[in-house]
Amino acid sequence: MQRTGTALSVNVNKIALLRNSRTLGVPSVVRAAALCLEAGAHGITVHPRPDERHIRRQDVFDLAELLKAWPGVEFNIEGNPFHNLIGLAREVVGRGLPLHQCTLVPDSVEQSTSDHGWRFPDDAARLAPVVAEFRALGVRVSLFMDPERDAMAAVRAVGADRVELYTETYARAFAEGRPGEVGQAFADAARAALREGLGVNAGHDLNLDNLPSFLSMVPGVQEVSIGHALVADALEFGLPEAVRRYCQCAREGNT
User: Fold this and answer.
1) Which of 34, 52, 132, 193 could serve as a FRET partner for 187 with CA atoms 20 to 30 Å apart?
2) What domain count does the chain have?
3) Considering the entire predicted model, what is its pTM?
4) Number of helices and strands (H, E) in the chain?
């Protein structure tokens, strides 16, 4: 799918986390995703962990069913391919449901959230066959990566289509008033990825304040995946308005 500018994929994990604190299915993850799409989001992201502490297995299929009615948007499933992700992707595709991208993340079972990217050359040998397996399903593969310029050729060599730059260090530096100290590393990594023919995604701790500056500094970002900050802003603005504001930020960052 070709798109001008940076796409916003809304991660609905935090909606599921809130729902899981009670037993009546409120709030509805599917309804929340529909509101995001109606407000202009370009995709939905989920990160289903083995313990189902937020997104559950059934949520993946329910959301994929929803997206059948939205052919212009994308479904992205994140996770560790050595946990539950491959089997889940196989079943989604096997049911004839949409699955556009899998973002492979090296998180451990006990982690509260993703906090680092893949290491090269250390992870290359075990990643290559699983990347091939996802691509054989017709699914685009993105690898979750720290902003390491010199790793991008190795990412391409294992067969990945994109990288998702892990942006927590940028968000922290921005909050401390020193984004330029780390921004150059992200820009260099993105340029290296583009030279290798890789697409560039980004995500983790991006928000309304730091997103425009990040996108203005880092070239060629095709997609940002945002959940925690967007859901937090939705407490103030409402979910549709929060999505509209993030879409506007993405447009501003590309001007």
Assistant:
1) 132
2) 1
3) 0.94
4) 11, 8
